[in-house]
Structures are given as C-alpha cells and as structure tokens.
Amino acid sequence: MTFEGLELRSHIGADGTLRIGLVTVRHGAPGPGDVIIRVEAAPLNPTDHYLLTGPADQATMTASGTRERPELTMTIPAAALPFVSRRVGISMPVGAEGAGTVVAAGAGAEALVGRRVAAMAGGMFTQYRQLAARRCVVLPDSVPTARGAAMFVNPLTVLGFIETMRDEGHSALVHAAAASNLGQMLVKACLADGIPLVNIVRRPEQAAILHGIGAKLVMDSSRPDFEHELGRAVAETGARLAFDPIGGGRLAGQILAAMETASASPDGAYEHYGSAVPKGLYIYGGLDRGPTILELRFGFAWRVGGWLLFHFMARAGAERMAGLQARVLSEIDTTFASRFTRTVSLAQVLDPEVFGAFQAKSTGEKYLVSPSADV
Amino acid sequence: MTFEGLELRSHIGADGTLRIGLVTVRHGAPGPGDVIIRVEAAPLNPTDHYLLTGPADQATMTASGTRERPELTMTIPAAALPFVSRRVGISMPVGAEGAGTVVAAGAGAEALVGRRVAAMAGGMFTQYRQLAARRCVVLPDSVPTARGAAMFVNPLTVLGFIETMRDEGHSALVHAAAASNLGQMLVKACLADGIPLVNIVRRPEQAAILHGIGAKLVMDSSRPDFEHELGRAVAETGARLAFDPIGGGRLAGQILAAMETASASPDGAYEHYGSAVPKGLYIYGGLDRGPTILELRFGFAWRVGGWLLFHFMARAGAERMAGLQARVLSEIDTTFASRFTRTVSLAQVLDPEVFGAFQAKSTGEKYLVSPSADV
Q1: Complex confidence, ipTM
Q2: pTM (2 decimals)?
Q3: Which of A17, A183, B19, B84 has the highest CB neighbour number within 10 Å of its CB?
Q4: Which of A29, A38, A37, A39 is nearest to A107 (CA)?
C-alpha cells in the first residue's frame, strides 16, 4: 500500500534564490498511531508567507517550469539571508492547516479510516499527509470539508485575542487592519461575546464591509480626523489593548497615544510621568515590513510586543485549547465561517497571477487550495 | 511659629512659555502627623527633567532676573503643548528626593524634631518642606545627609530592575547608557548579587569607567563590531531582559535582535516564526527624544515597554519596598553610594552654565542642590 502525490515545497539556495515548486512524495503504510489523509482543502493563510516566501523580494518573482510542474523563483536580499540561514538547502513543506479524508491508518487508529478530519499540522499543501491520529479533529457530518479546513488558524487566533484580553484584565479591544477575513471573524466573535471593539481600517470600502456585518466602531486611518476619532472610540469603550497585523509604520504609536489621552486622570490633575493605566499593543503579523516607529508620547505604562498563535497555545495548555476548539466547531457556520473567494489546485498556487493576488493580501479575498483537484 | 524660605518652581503659560524661578513659601505650624524639614540636600536627578523643563526646546533657553532671584525661560513647541495642557498656569514644585533636619512637628510626630530625615516626596528643591511624618526615613548617625538625600531614586531603580528581572523569570540583564551614575550603581549591585550584566556604552572612556569599578562585560556601541560583540555577550550571559534610558533610535531593536540570535534552538532547527524564548526590553527614560525605531527581526516572543519606579513601587507594595529600602540603607556607603561632582544653591541651579551642564547629562556628573546654602 503506497500513496503517491504532489506536494508544494519552498527551498532557499545558498545564493539566496528561493524556489517554490511541486515534488512527488510517496508514503508507505502508516506506522502505529499514524494516519494518511487525502487532503481535499487547505486555506492559503497570511501566516503561510513566513515559510512560502520568507524575506524574499516579491518584485524579483519569475515563473518557469511546465503547466503540471510550475515553479516560482525569487531573490532574498543579502541583508536578510542570515535570518533564514538555517533553512538553506532544506525543501520545506508549507500549509498550516487543512482537511480531508483518512485513507489509511496504522495500529490503534483504524477507526479513523474513511472519516473526514481536519488538522493544523503544517505541510498541508499536499495531496497526501501522514501524521499522528491524535492531531486530527473529526469533522461532524454537518461541517463541509472546506469549512473544517480553516477551523484552526483564524478562529483560534480570534479566540486567542479575546483570551489574552481577559488574561490581562482588559474588557475591550482595538484591532488594526480590521477588514481582513480574521478581522471580520473578530467582529462577529466580539458581537457574540458583548466585547466592545474598535476597528481600524485604511479605506472607506473596508469600513463599509465591517458596518455591513454589524461593527459599531470603525475608524478610517486615511481620514484627517483619525487620531481624534480613535481617541473618542478608545475613551468610549475603555479599550487599552490592541492587536495589529501591520507592524511597520506609526500606527502602533498612534493607538497607544489615543489610549494614553483617554487614560488621563478624571480629576483633571497633571500626571508628569503620564497615566499609570496599563496600555498594550500586540503585533501579530508583518503586512508592512518597514520598521515600527514609536513616538514615545504615552507615559511609561505601555507595552508593545509580538503575539503568535503557537506561543499562545503553549501558554494556554491542551485543556484550555480543547475548549476553544470545541467552541469553534459549534460556531463554525456562524462566527467562525470562512468564505473563500477562489479555489485553486496545487499547480495553480504557482500561477503568478494567483500567487500575486494572494501576496497582495487584498481585503476580503481568501483562497482555498484543493490539492486533490486536477491541474 | 512660621518657616519662610525659597522654593524652586516650574510654570508653563498658555502661550507655551516655560519659566523656572524661585518663589517665597511660608509654612505655619505643621498639622497632626506632619513635620517641617529644613532641606539640606537634594540631588538633581534626570527624572526631575519631566517637571523642570517638560517638552521645552532647550535651545530657546534665556536667563533673566537677579542674582538672588534668577529666572530661566524657554519655549514649548506648539505640537508638544497638548501633552502638558493640564499643568498650564500651575506653579509646580520640583525635586524628587532630599534630606534635612526636622524643625517642627505636629501632634504625634514630635519625636522627629531635631532628627535628620530623608524623603522621596517631590518638591524637595525648597528650603522648608512640609510633609507627613510617615513619608520620612530617619537617617542613622553614620549616614551623611547628602548621601541620605539620594537614597531613593537611583538605588530603588537599580533594585527595581533586579526585582523585575526575578519576577519575570530572568537571571541576567542588559543595561544601556550604562556609565551613568545609576548604571555604575547597577554594576555594583549586580556584582554583589552575582547577576551577569551586559553594559552598553557609547564611548571608550565610558567603558574605562565601568571596567574600573569591576564591570566584566562592556560593549561600546560606537565600534563597528558592536552587534556581533553584543550577540556574544548576550549568548554568554543568557540575558534576555534589558533596561534602556535612551528610548529614541535603533538600539532597542539591536538589543532584541542580539537576544533573538542568541536564542536560536541549539539543535540547529529552523524556527520559521523565530525563537519562542521570551525577550524583553524596558525603556525607563528619554535621553534621546526621537522616535524608537524597531526593525522587527526578532520573531514574536518579544516585548518592549515603559518602566517607571513609581509604577514598580505600586506593584511591589509597601512591605516589599520597605525591605528594599532597608537594603539600600545597609549598603549606602558601598553599593548605593552616590558621588556628587558639584554642590549648588537653589539660585545656582538657574545659572545657565549649571543648568546646561545638568541638562547635558554628562557621564559621571551628578549635582547636589543645597537649598539651605546662601546664593
């Protein structure tokens, strides 16, 4: 019994050339406790960028290969090469999460054969994925495979934000780049949980999307009165914790400054070291790869840090994560429903037009990879 | 019974003009639980800047007034005026800490009359300071008044760094601008406690000062191999927490990047989201008022925040602070000895030459104000 299929790989050469292409992978019978999944759906998540393209310069992208075996090539700037030196020469699988049907199982996992399962196990941009049965979540009959394929990264990130908020004693949130697929999910989750949420977008049409799904507070950073309006919204909601996937630029400092202004002591007294009310902002992505520029005009009770789902999961522990996962499944058709705008095959991922659109991270666009589909 | 004396005040007018001058203050008999201290020594600490000059443009400084009642005037840039709007029109006392002799006491505090005491109560650049007796620390006979006057801000900040380090599970420190009076104290405290300390300075002569008091690891950021050497020192000590009084510029990011490099998994595996080892940096001052510029090249397990002694004290609570204060007194002639390079009267503080030298925050310079001294 063997299973042979295509798998997407990303490879960096010692000269800084990054190549993304397809290889053929063959699996024998799975070992004890393992299963082989025929992957039928795997979303292209922004987080997949870290492995797919790393710090490569997108402008250098060229396409080659055949229709069945296309290849994309780009260059990693010399200054960035040290940050990926440990993966030079390694053919890396990609794809954080996905779902499909179990086609084979080792000892102890036989009950899963024929069942549809989802997993956040990495390397899901592949036709056959072998992994430990305990990493699989069995999908209820009511949950379509494509929906189940996206039940981890975005939903757990959204719940991770809310849990982090509660853990740190906050009761409201600010979210930047709020019109993303994840941002829309956060709007729905905060509405469901009664959590005041201040949404920051960059364009009027993004504001319209969020208003359309019930968002109450949407601030457009392209407007001249943005800082003033943000200050009002932060004061109204009491939000002193923000999540920001942009990273680069001055927005993080603007958010903290708005929080500081809203935290001034109500008795009108001058606090010469600024407010003592804790203010925090987490950067959880890198949409803007430029430097984060903080004008320190928000006292000393502030904090900016990185936030990563996998670090949160390690802190939260298995039991708490199981509870969050159960909530995701129970609201998979409402709060945590992902909508895909396009489905592509593995080979189509490497179509420059498709790949470029994915890299552009356009608002509302979300691509689903269907590895079992023909070229 | 009245006590009349001079007091230094800082005042901002609605037009953005900041004036620093002397006023006459008169105290009647102290109320129950209060004492009046004849202030004999009060250090000029960098933290006093926040009230003394706020965000004023030092280049606009002009001197006026008489020898007995000098006055300094400077301008606050229009963009910065909103941050101090709440103190406009208020004559603010200055001077975080000081020491002197109790000359009068209200009911219940009589035992303090004639005793030498120190206090971190603000408004200590004055000839007579009235405050609650419970805020006074009685100085042992062996402790000179000038030494006692500086027993709070720098020593408690140094111990606050060490306590914060322990609270957050770290066992070594990085300190920037390490040749300051506070930095030298931190070197001695870390030597006493066996804590590995990586010192960062900007000039060879500062490195020499630190080596002279026993510092083992001193990195000069003006050297071309600085980042490499810093990386080595961070790896050697395991330091993943830094304190930085500079704030502006790129140093904070360089320190975090060095920590990230030193945190790479020892098995050589590539971690595509960076290391999961927590890395932190606290900004506790603003020597460089320019923006903090972070190049995000240190994964997601990082945190930059503000650190303020008064916030630490509030978190630590009275009992723990009393323990730290007791340690300071027991090591006031060794670890926590402040050395003053010049003693000035209240009027002399406003001598442009003296004031300018203080503002320049030159390494190793520390001024003591002797409010009881003649002009």
Answers
A1: 0.93
A2: 0.94
A3: A183
A4: A29
